[in-house]
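Why do we bother with a discrete structure alphabet at all? Because it lets us treat a fold like text: something you can write down, compare, and reason about line by line. To make this less abstract, here is a complete entry for AraC-like DNA-binding protein. Read it the way you would read a sentence in a foreign language you are learning: slowly, and without expecting to understand everything at once.
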Amino acid sequence: MMPFLLAEFANLEQLLPLYVTCVGSHAQKHLDRPDGYTAHQILLSRSGRGVFRIAGLGDLRMTPGTLLILPAGVPHEYYPDRSDESWDLGFVAFDGSAAAPLLHQMAHLVTTVLPAPNFNDLWSQLESLWHLISLNGEQAYWESSKRMYGLLLSALEGQTAGKRPAKNVYPAGQSNAALQTAVKLIHDHYNERLLLANVARAAGYSVQHFHRLFVESFGVTPQQYILQLRMRRSVQLFEEQPGISVEKVAELIGMETSYFIRMFKRTYGKTPKQYKG
């Protein structure tokens, strides 16, 4: 076990684009965070089983060898799945000006329990961060920033390596390139009226084939992916521009205001105005 370790950065937060706020692992007990956590988190389930209950997403079950990337401010609670079994959960919380753009790039991986083919490597990196932070020196903070970036890339690399459809009727490499084209189109135009038929056409597939391929690769439908992207962008706008109106955010992400409010509450458990405080 790695006891909870709080990183004190001696006012380096303004210099470091990515920094660790806390790291550790323990036998996880029930924890309720109705307002979410103040920093982004990567959670690694080493042994036992646990349940994450995330507002708007229901119950997500973590089993040994899985990971969960959870953005800051997302209401949630979590607890062991069985009272007679210990749940060994590792965690690292991080923040910084580069954190939100990185998670934006990894949007298809967040708030989803994912199997980690490279779990042992991820756990070793978590332990390395813990030992580094425990040194409590200024150089350790700079180095931990580099290693935190490495941990995020390793999580992304593991998912990229692991996404192989069981049956691929398309030529090798073609489906992956098509999905990359589709995802880029979605990220470039998520705030516009995107028709699934147009996205599928840009990828070179029929709507039915594209829909199936997308779900196999990302675990959500293209429409759900776009909605998740818009919701996360709305939170980012509220954080970047505290005085921005709900109506303006809805406009910027391409949603009608009342629909945006309804989807925001379904996703985060509170209305945009309640979230803004």
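What the structure line is telling us, in plain words: Residues 162-174 have pLDDT under 50 and may be disordered. The longest helix spans residues 138-162.
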